[in-house]
Amino acid sequence: MESDINKGNHAEFSENQQESKLELYGFDSLVNKFGMKSMIREHIPGSTRLPDGEDVSITVGQPKSNDLKLGTLMGVFVPCLQNILGIIYYIRFSWIVGMAGIGGTLMLVSFCSLSTILTAISLSAIATNGAMKGGGAYYLIGRSLGPEVGVSIGLCFFLGTAIAGAMYVLGAVETFLDAAPGFAIFGGNITNVNGTVIPGAIQEVVRTPSVHNLQIYGTIVTLVLTFIVFGGVKIINKVSPAFLIPVLFSVCCIFLGIFTSPKDSARSGISGLSLKTFKENWGSEYQLTNSAGVPDPEGSIYWNFNALVGLFFPAVTGIMAGSNRSASLLDTQRSIPIGTLAATLATTALYLISVLLFGALASREELLTDRLLMAAVAWPAPAIVYIGIILSTLGAALQSLTGAPRLLAAIANDDILPVLNYFKVADDGEPYLATLFTAFICIGCVLIGNLDLISPTITMFFLLCYAGVHLSCFLLDLLDAPSWRPRWKFHHWSLSLIGALQCILIMFLISWSFTVVSLALASLIYYYVCLEGKAGDWGDGFKSAYFQLALRSLRSLGASQVHPKNWYPIPLVFCRPWGKLPENVPCHPKLADFANCMKKKGRGMSIFVSILDGDYYECAEDAKAACRNLSTYIDYKRCEGVAEIVVAPSMAAGFRCIVQTMGLGNLKPNIVVMRYPEIWRHENLTEIPATFVSIINDCIVANKAVVIVKGLDEWPNEYQRQFGTIDLYWIVRDGGLMLLLSQLLLTKESFESCKIQLFCIAEEDTEAEELKADVKKFLYDLRMQAEVIVVRMKSWEANMEGGVQQDNSLEAFTAAQRRIASYLEEMKQNSAKEGTPLMADGKPVVVNEQQVDKFLHTTLKLNSTILRYSRMAAVVLVSLPAPPVKHPAYFYMEYMDLLVENVPRLLMVGGYQKNVYTLFT
Question: pLDDT of 144-178, one tens digit each?
């Protein structure tokens, strides 16, 4: 008993020790998050919320069974094989051999197949770089090139896949009516080799089924296939072999017929496998044909290698059929590379072997005139090939009707375009509404009856998708981000680049006009997504490219001073207002408008910062939420910039940290923008002046320019046009910042109707005309237009001799003096009680009252001058005076109040020791 108790105590101690270790390393919560409860003895309750980002699912033990999931064979190989092996092989391949010759056809097959093989390699690399959801190529392109590119190419690929289903249906119906003309409801057309229509004639002719027959039978077949697709993946998995096995059997019968074909065949054009025939058919013989493809000296269609590329390339497409069903695959990272490459290599080998055999089997005339030569030589009967043609096209149509809805549902599930929300489906659900929409498109195209005009565009959509896959792999492989770790190792960025260039080349070889049409459609979708789509951050390759480009640009800028010709304003917008804003408004609305006014044509970056008072550990989550809200607000205001939130004990301490650390290299903010605290008299009298002065002094020490906006509530937005003048009171040299700001304001629509007036403040004994001429010459060299006005102002000493009572603003002057005297007396009394000879802002009590009066008089005279000359100005810019040394912050606020009084819209600009303009080219 004691032993058992000891064992129990030991086990309990071990368990507690284990739990303490788990708790120490924070591992207990991970156990619950990832579902690995078997790693500990008891369930430890914890949060089950996953971090933001992609869903993570790790299952320990037996995986959850799902009988709907498909393997490599039925999930990828069979769909790709059915889409690739189609009607072109049966009814057009022998004709292509006769037109291009054996050598030309081998080159044609190799050229087109190389494109799909390279695409399969790039597809395999991206598909094995992580878990893959539904959407196939769209999912890969979107996560690599961004949601805008992904949705535009994905919708084009969906449209091409849906319309391709209609093409396959029409091909099956046309073959059926050729093999069994008795089932035709309407009479067809009979065309001789010269193209004239002779109803009822009995001669060597080409029969064309009626369009009405194609429409009726095509609609019925599409509805039947749609009904099969509605049954889900399980039914499609059972039906697919019924379509594929007869196709493969017909191919075997064709090869048996070729090898058993006698040389003395009843048909003079079929010589059997003959070396002589092989040599005669080696070279090409491009010629004119009629619309039915029959050689005709008066035909309207001339065939060459480029035209044959457009005809044959659809025969090698279809490699995306397996990846389009990625949501139904058991293991995408294994099935997609193996299944896609196996289907591509198998059909390529089949095409190459068929070129050699058909080139040695029949004469060139027989190859060019007999569209169903494969059926003629098939063993034991031509009916097997007819069945193979019909079933191959129906199988390809079934795969198109299966893949296209899942592609559309995947685009809708990403929630980028709200208009596609109707096609959303739950996980492992069937996209019924998307299937109906795809069937509607197919039936609409079937009712047209002739897709020759738009079939090249369909091929363009496939090539556009292939090029997108190549560019995705090229970008990811070239950037080589840490997250780029594909299991498929047989790839290189150069192969992806070659594949992308080849896709573009094939597009122009087929038809440059259809290439332009397809690119224009993709561009329109891209533009629509940019306007109406929701933002989706998928960590695409462009973000990595931007990061690498930013690093290289930053290194190229170096750490040296920026040349004035390359100077751009980088405003540091101080969002925290001197007062309160409406709820959920993280920044004053007009601050973003003003920040945009400081950029020429939107070029430049703004940094919006806000400070939260408190402890960082306690306010970290609040800071993150505030940063997200501020970023959203910046995007809403269409201001190019970034948001930053700093947690600090006080606003002054937080700003001091910001001004020292914000930015990197030469990409540091160079202008601090904030609102003038007009409410400082009504709120905390000790905090606002001290903080305001501290911020200005920090900017001076850090060599940052300052722009303080007074009257921010009345600042115009982009739709409020201003008239009048932009007045500059240029008192001190500031590196040209004030001049540059006035020019930047003129580039905005709201101020483009204004003119600039430059007021030069001079003492009475200054030569006004000489100063005016010098300033005009200076502005001319700077390529700036402004009217120069010289304003003479008495100095403080001269004014004292005449008596300050002569000034009309005596009341404001004396009121400011009384407030300053009262504040000074109160601070001295408080300092005496506490026994510390310090002011409230920590500075020594050393005040020269005569110097205070001098500052008051100067700012008052400047305010009077502004009101006299610029009462009707759209905006006034004045040099910002630096806070006097050893003057309390309260005194400086009094000076500033006198300066801005009764001026509705004023910018106080404090420059720095760097020029922002240059006289030279």
Answer: 888 888 899 899 989 988 988 888 898 888 888 87
Q: Distance between CA atoms of 159 and 152, rounded to whole angstroms?
A: 11
Give dist(CA 555, CA 356) in Å, integer. Answer: 58
User: Is residue 2 within a helix (H) or strand (E), and if so which, with residue range?
Assistant: helix 2-24
- Residues near 491 by Cβ (< 8 Å), separated by ≥ 6? 121, 122, 124, 125, 473, 477
- Residue 297 token pair: 């000296």
Instruction: Decide: 82 and 398 in contact? Cβ < 8 Å.
Output: yes
Name the CA radius of gyration of the chain, rounded.
Answer: 40
State the Cα–Cα distance between residues 866 and 761, nearest whole angstrom: 11
Tens of pLDDT, residue by residue over 366-401, are 888 887 888 888 888 888 888 888 888 888 888 889
Kindly report the backbone phi and psi dihedral angles of residue 318, in degrees, each rounded to the nearest multiple of 5, phi listed first.
110, 5
Q: How far is CA 113 from the centre of its chain?
A: 31
Q: How confident is the model at residue 678 (pLDDT cuts 50, 70, 90)?
A: confident
Residue of 104, 84, 75, 107 whose CA lies nearest to 347? 84
Q: Up-side HSE of residue 765: CA atoms within 13 Å toward CB?
A: 2
Taking the CA atoms of 329, 330, 336 and 338 in sequence, report the sign of the dihedral they define.
negative
Lowest mean pLDDT among 21-25, 321-325, 359-363: 21-25
173: alpha, beta or left? (left if phi > 0; alpha if psi -120 to 50): alpha
What is the helix (H) or strand (E) element at residue 908, kind and residue range? strand 906-910
Weakest-pLDDT range from 316-325, 605-614, 640-649: 316-325
Nearest-angstrom CA–CA distance, 916 and 911: 10
Residue 18's pLDDT is 45
Model pLDDT for residues 782-800, shown as the tens digit of each residue: 777 888 888 877 655 545 4
Q: Are 59 and 68 in contact (CB under 8 A)?
A: no
Q: Which two tokens stand for residue 710?
A: 């007074």
On the CB side of 921, CA atoms within 13 Å amount to 0
Run of H or E including 616: helix 616-636
Residue 396 CA to residue 240 CA, distance in Å, equals 10
What is the C-alpha separation between 157 and 578, in angstroms, rounded?
A: 54
Residue 47 has pLDDT above 60, yes or no: no
